[in-house]
Automatic annotation (TrEMBL):
This is EngB-type G domain-containing protein. It comes from Trichoglossum hirsutum. Its cofactor is Mg(2+). InterPro entries: G_ENGB_dom, GTP-bd, GTP-bd_ribosome_bio_YsxC, P-loop_NTPase. It comes from the Eukaryota. One of its GO terms (molecular function) is GTP binding. Residues 1-154 form the EngB-type G domain.
């Protein structure tokens, strides 16, 4: 189980989380999926000297990691499109890495507001598909899993 901070931008290193098939008592020793949580470029409230070091390990990880099957770019649906998100998405395209853009906090916006936000995000980031999700209400999570599994099985 991961500890979640109420303050955005707390991740300062690459954190790994593994999922194993089976019950906790009888799961396979080899993980089914390994998630890597990378620091966010955009909203980190930390010193510039710390965040300036991130490209030295984040960019090589994204560019050179052969086992990397899918990058999930989390964007906040509750704020205007961020240039740092666009830069990350364009980097994924340049590196020819499979990626999925997921709009978080979709529970905070009503139907029309969410539609407008998703359209603005698509236009700003130059993507056709953004999946809205909410960790609070779990809205969209059921739609996210098949997209992850489809990439991993290919």
């Amino acid at each position: 189980e991961a500890k979640v901070s109420s303050t955005p931008g707390r991740t300062r290193a690459i954190n790994f989380f593994t999922l194993h098939e089976g019950t906790p008592q009888k799961h396979s020793m080899k993980p089914s999926i390994i998630f890597a949580d990378l620091p966010g470029y955009g909203y980190a409230k930390i010193s510039k000297s710390i965040s300036a070091e991130w490209p030295t390990f984040i960019e090589p990880y994204l560019n050179e990691r052969e086992q990397l099957a899918l990058c999930i770019c989390l964007v906040d649906s509750n704020i205007p499109p961020q240039e740092s998100d666009t830069m990350l998405i364009h980097a994924m395209q340049q590196m020819q890495r499979p990626y999925l853009v997921v709009a978080t906090k979709s529970d905070k916006l009503g139907g029309n507001q969410l539609t407008k936000s998703l359209n603005a995000l698509k236009k700003a980031h130059g993507v056709d598909h953004i999946l809205p999700v909410s960790s609070k209400t779990e809205k969209g999570v059921k739609g996210l899993w098949p997209e992850i599994v489809n990439v991993i099985r290919d």
